[in-house]
Amino acid sequence: MIFNFQFFYRKKKFDQNSIESTNLSRVLGLLDLTALGVSSTIGSGVYVLIGNTISHTAGPSIIISFLIAGICSFLAGLCYAELGSRVPRSGSAYVYIYVTIGEFLAFIIGWDVILEYVIGTSTSASALSKYIDSLTDYKISQAFNSSMHMNVHFLAPYPDFLAFGMAIIITGLLTIGVKESSFLNKIFTAGNVVCILFVILAGSSKGNLENWSKKVYPNMSYIDIGGRNLTCRESNLCGNGGFVPFGFNGIIKGAAKCFYAYIGFDVIATTGEEVINPKQTIPISILLTLLTVSICYIGVSIVVSLMVPYYIFDMSAPLSEVFNYVGLEWVYYVVTTGAIISLATGLYASMFPMPRVVYSMSTDGLLFKFLSFLTPKLNTPLWASLLTGLLAGILVLLFDLNQLIDMMSIGTLIAYSLVSACCLSLRYNSNSNERSTKSSNNFISKFKAFLFGYSSEPLYRRLFLPSETKPSRATSHLANTLIFTIMIIILIIGIILNHADLQMAAPITFLIIFLLVLLVLSFILWRQPQDNTITTFKVPLVPFIPILSAFVNIYLVTSLTTATWIRFLVWFGIGIVIYFTYSIRYSKENNFGSHILCPCFHEPYIEDTEQIIDESIF
Question: Which has the closest alpha carbon to 422: 480, 472, 468?
Answer without folding.
Answer: 480
